[in-house]
Amino acid sequence: MVSYKLLTPEDVYLTAPAPAEARREETPPESPGSQKKGVCSTSKAFVGLGTFLFALGCSWLVGTIFWLKYPGSELPARAPSPSPAAGAASGEADPDTCRAIPESHRFDCYPESGVVVTRELCEARNCCFIQVSAEPPPAKNGVPWCFYPPSFPTYTLDSLNDTTLGYIGQLTKKEKTHYPRDIETLQLDVMYETDSRLHVKITDKSGPRFEVPLSVPLATQKASNPAYTVLFSKTPFGLIVTRTSTGTVLINTTVAPLFFAEQFLQMSTALASRYVYGLGEHRAGFLHSVEWNTLTLWARDVPPMELTNLYGVHPFYLGIEPGGSAHGVFLLNSNAMDVALQPAPALTWRTIGGILDIYIFLGPDPNSVVQQYLEVVGVPAMPVYWALGFHLCRWGYKTSNGTWDVVKAMRNYGIPQDVQWNDIDYMNGSRDFTFDPERFSTLPEMVKDLHKKGQRYVMILDPGISSTQPPESYWPYDEGLRRGVFINDSDGNTLIGKVWPGLTAFPDFSNPDTHQWWYENLQKFYTQVPFDGLWIDMNEPSNFFDGSLNGCPSNDLENPPYTPGILGGTLRAKTVCASAVQKLSVHYNLHSLYGLMEAMASASALRKIVGKRPFVISRSTFPSQGRYSGHWLGDNGSKWKDLSMSIPGILNFNLLGIPLVGADICGFSGSTTEELCVRWMQLGAFYPFSRNHNSIDQQPQDPASFSPLARTAMKEALLLRYSLFPFLYTLFHRAHVEGWTVARALLFEFPDDVKTYAIDRQFLWGRSLLVTPVLDPGVDYVVGYFPKGLWYDYYTGDSLRSAGEEVKLQAPLDKINLHVREGSVIPAQTPNTTLWISTGNPLHLVVALSDDSTAEGDLFWDDGESIDTYETDQYAYIVFSASQNMFTSKVLHENIEATYITVETVSFFGVKQMPSNVTVNSKETPFTYKTNQVLTVSNLVLNLGQEFTISWI
User: Fold this and answer.
1) DSSP secondary structure of 306-326
2) Is residue 447 predicted with pLDDT exceeding 60?
3) 499 in helix, strand or coil?
4) What is the pLDDT of residues 348-407, one digit of tens each?
5) Which residues contact 725 (CB under 8 A, 6 or more apart)?
6) Helices 475-483 & 512-526, crossing angle to 10 degrees?
7) CA separation for the pair 392, 419 (Å, rounded)
């Protein structure tokens, strides 16, 4: 075992329940400062037996951790030397001990970027220095040359006492280290909040520090049967969390020293495996690499690119354990941070402010992990129905009539469209809450026309408020100054940056007064242009200056002792000064929360203005964002790579609790090709949020602008989406109520199949529909992976039985492959050009029977737009099930909305023999049966609000 401190019986606290091999009745021997007391024994023999069992248990634990870190063939030829005993000199790193630490287990002692680490610099920190390459570090795939020795000074656990939720402890540090202003005494709180959720907080015992103002559940009693076991190393301090049922180590912080300084906090942990997901927002595969991969989190305006921090910050990861169980870890911290992954496998949290506020979720499956995470940060809102239609936008329509012409062309070709958008060119001088009185003079009339046709309108808003116009000529700025709603610089003056309108001030959305001011601005604009939703962009916040018009002061907030690997190298790069002052705190702490707080203000305002479910799409995001907005993946390019990279982005945000997510279909920047745009429209038809958007001065890429062949293929893809609306809407209901993902990685449904762990060129809708898009140019086929089981072609009902294998599928330009998983019932609907029309059309149920002829599904239905219909019982809920040649529809919750809909057709896939008789509600009914084992019953006209039965013999 390589760890910062090997666990020994006298250095470990065991908390119940312990692993079966280590479970015992008495506590470990008391150590200095400990308040825990042992249980008296009744005989020396019992004491001896207990001691033996305890030693055996600890040996098992050490062995387990050692096995976890060196599975199978990765075992080293010789185990590293044990750590020096407590009290050994920590001023120098022992060369032999340093050399014994394998490269994969070297935790970086000099993570500062832009520094060539020399032996002198490293040893000045009392760390190990071993040059692993002739090239300057990082070299040899990132192996650090300078790394912590086992003797590096850190905290000691001085006391540990019981609380109503778990334990409270005191950590002390007697030796200063290389980051300034070490906090010498910390408080440790370990809270057994639920059987599947452990909460650990490490804070400054002497006083408060910034904590993220997120509303989280407050447990009132200790979990009665937790799925986890917690152990503590005293000297040096370490925390070990295992899964009680398997003994798998989920968290082991003994692998490296703990840091807690004023502006540098660091905690490392071993990982249960190399399979790590989440940690948004980055452009990468769904499965993160642990080959010396550092992910920086700090909201940033930059077109999506690899190896840099992007628009959102989500310090949450999901890990897969040996055997397929899953757990999650969430660090509730908004300060700039690096998350370093290394091949041990291990992970290091490295942040420059706040506290260490950590949640651990025990799953045990990936879906459960996400659900438990959302119990903390909040489940996503139920979207308004039209949000799930097709959206069309571009920067560069140039006029309202130009915009209107595109809408009319879409209508003329019968191409589905629910929402028309405008980018910043609708504004007067790029100023929020205005529209150009000349170029967009007919905007109000266009919006009225959209509404008459059952369509909606969404426009962009940027947070930067123009500051250069004459006084009293622009109410948003003038009134904002009067109310003091803007971010100030460190001298207390309004901070001025630069965005599209020129010099701008930035609203402080941490101030409740700003929310009211934002609402009033929107209300005033709504009286002119009755918009339906909001697109909030540039809200990292983005700034064309670094900091402000007048620069930023030179202080610790602007120049912290450690700066994570932020694009631009400073916290203020293309945003406002870190030292800027907001109502709640300095921008240093609040920066990555800006988009979330603006989304909260926007959603609240829309609820008041339109009186319906708010529709907000935000670029910058933070945990809990799904409660207020959806997200698009930013300013992508019209390239095949961007097409394929959109899938891991969408899967990641579903994992992070923001299921209403999509990428700009056909790409934002650059000009698309017809083939690329067709393939992208097909994939985009299965984005949870489906919007085609492109940039100014590029070729048009709306479906109506292409050749008849391409236009028809795009239209068919959208009609397919619209036909599946009942199924998609029900998935969003399950996301809202239960924390489900909508677009789902195959891993989530097949965690026992290791082949699914890295798949991100296919995905599922829910558990039932497998989407296999074409992501490469010039091909008429695609290779997809089918997990073990029975799958059906959605279009034909043809069956495909897989043992867990790749299958070559035909994919001409007008087709996207779609398969139904056995045991599923898919409610579909006759589509039309808007969801307002479609949702009144008859239903078509697809019943995909499993080998034992069973299937199940459900349907949630309401008016599509009223707020909190589920919470106020204004909905219908129907469950479908098939078994023993009988299909039933049961109404579990009644609502008048369901009575307006009829079921017209039911198709059964996988009926093994041609029936001689089919009855509907005991009445014999005509049917068709095809040789591919598809039974179809048509012309039913069954009221959805009433139960019915179909049977066959």
Assistant:
1) TTS--S--EEEEEEEPTTS-E
2) yes
3) strand
4) 999 999 999 999 999 999 999 999 999 999 999 999 999 999 999 999 999 999 999 999
5) 385, 388, 829, 831, 835, 838, 839
6) 160
7) 6
User: Rounded to whole angstroms, how far apart are CA atoms 415 and 702?
Assistant: 10
pLDDT in tens, 226-238: 999 999 999 999 9
Of 135, 134, 72, 138, which Cα lies nearest the Cα of 103? Answer: 138
For residues 451 and 500, the answer to whether their CB atoms sit within 8 Å is no
Task: State the amino acid at position 568 in one-letter form.
Answer: G
Tell me the backbone φ, ψ of residue 290, rounded to 5 degrees.
-105, 15
The label of the residue with tokens 């589509």 reads 831
* Residue 540 annotated as catalytic: yes
pLDDT digits over 118-162, tens only? Answer: 999 999 999 999 998 777 665 556 899 999 999 999 999 999 999
Provide the greatest CA pair distance for the chain. 96
3-state SS, residue 714: helix
- 537: annotated active-site residue: yes
**Residues 6 or more apart from 491 whose CB is under 8 A from it?**
none
Residue 178 has pLDDT above 80, yes or no: yes
Residue 712: pLDDT over 90: yes
Neighbours of 86 (CB within 10 A): 14
CA angle 795, 801, 804 (to 5 degrees): 115
- Degrees, nearest 5: CA angle 772-775-781: 65
Average pLDDT over residues 267-271: 98
Give the residue from 871, 770, 759, 858 showing the smallest Cα distance to 819: 770
DSSP one-letter code for 82? P
Alpha-carbon span 691 to 507, nearest angstrom:
28
Strands (DSSP E) along 106-162, which ranges?
Answer: 128-129, 146-147, 156-162
User: Are the beta carbons of 149 and 94 closer than 8 angstroms?
Assistant: yes
At 561, list the tokens: 């002792």
What is the 8-class DSSP label of residue 365?
A: S
Contact, 767 vs 744, CB < 8 A? yes
Place 58 in a pLDDT band, splitting at 50, 70 and 90: very low
* Phi, psi of 667, deg, nearest 5: 90, 150
Task: With H, G, I as helix, E, B as strand and everything else as coil, classify residue 510.
Answer: coil
DSSP state string for 588-640 = HHHGGGHHHHHHHHHHHHHHHHHSS---EEESS--TTGGGT-EEE--S-BSSH
Give the separation between CA 848 and CA 908, rounded to whole angstroms. 6
Separation of alpha carbons 831 and 377, rounded Å: 36
- Picking from 694, 702, 672, 632, the residue whose alpha carbon sits closest to that of residue 395 is 694
pTM over 0.85: yes
pLDDT, position 89? 37
Tokens of 922: 């005991």
Structure tokens at 301: 């305006």
Whole-angstrom distance, CA of residue 863 vs CA of residue 73: 58
Out of 537, 702, 749, 897, the active site residue is: 537
Pick the catalytic residue from 301, 375, 540, 904. 540
Q: Indicate the DSSP class of residue 356.
A: E
Do the Cβ atoms of 785 and 805 come closer than 8 Å? yes
Strands (E) located in 125-271:
128-129, 146-147, 156-162, 166-172, 185-194, 197-204, 228-233, 238-243, 249-252, 259-261, 264-270
Q: 44-48, 121-125, 412-416, 725-729 — which is least confidently predicted?
A: 44-48
d(C-alpha 567, C-alpha 104), whole Å = 26
Q: In whole angstroms, give the CA distance from residue 651 to residue 213.
A: 27
